[in-house]
Amino acid sequence: MNFKKPFLLLLVICASFFGNAAYANLIINGDFESNSFGATSFNLNNAAFTAGMNNATAFGGAQEIDVVTGTSLGIAPQSGSWKVGVHDQTGTLPFDSFSLDLSSSTIVGTVYTLSFWLAGQGGSALGPLEIGLSSSASSFGSLITSASAASASDWTMLSTTFTASSAASFLTFAPTADSYVFIDNISLTGEPGTVPTPATLALFGLGLAGLGWSRRKKA
């Protein structure tokens, strides 16, 4: 019996599985649409932001994060109906900080692409905003990138690629200058051709084992 076709089919299925898993966005609520606020809410303390924004944790010392819908402050959200505004009014501590949950931890050695949109608020500095990876929801962790908005009248799309050096479960955000910046539509995806997840490897191994068993049975 010719086993080339089943084997090739298995490879195609596994390759498709790898690709889909690699490109999945790990940020669970990266456009802030999943929340219970109902209306724009200004100067939220950490407990209020964490309670109202799903899959997010506020931990900055300023405790004045804004959750904005529509055009009640600045331009309309880049994606959907909501955006988040963070402050650093003094250029030093305290400042707003928060984290977003990842659907699965980053894998050491895997290449990831982080993309996000920034906009300023009229009359305020436009950043920079630091973004990091952390194993704790309430700690900034290690820096990935630092970026500033280009304008208060339009959104700036920013993107960076990095190799994960640790297993982290949270993406973190903190401004680092006397500034006010909106963020929206955040995405974190793994690059194909780098390290697959252990679950994916296990499925691939089971498929090959099953094919081998089938060959022995029919020999």
Q: Could you please describe the fold and organization of this structure?
A:
This protein has 219 residues and is α+β, with helices and mostly antiparallel strands. Helices cover 22% and strands 32% of the residues. It has 3 helices and 11 strands, in the order αβαββββββββββα. Strands 1-3-4-11-6-9 form a 6-stranded antiparallel beta sheet. A hairpin with a 7-residue loop joins strand 7 (129-134) and strand 8. It is globular, with a radius of gyration of 21 Å. The N and C termini lie close together (8 Å).
What's the short version?
The protein is of the alpha+beta class and 219 residues long. The protein contains 3 helices and 11 strands, in the order αβαββββββββββα.
Weakly predicted, low-confidence segments: 7-21, 200-209
What proportion of the residues form beta strands (DSSP E)?
Answer: 25-35%
Helix content: 10-25%
Cα-atom radius of gyration? 21 Å
Strand order of the largest sheet: 1-3-4-11-6-9
Class based on secondary structure composition and strand pairing = alpha+beta
Gap between N and C termini, in Å? 8 Å
| Overall geometric form | globular
Q: Encode the helix/strand succession as letters.
A: HEHEEEEEEEEEEH
Average per-residue pLDDT, rounded, comes to 83
What is the count of helical runs?
3
Beta-strand segment tally: 11
Q: Summarize the main sheet.
A: 6 strands, antiparallel
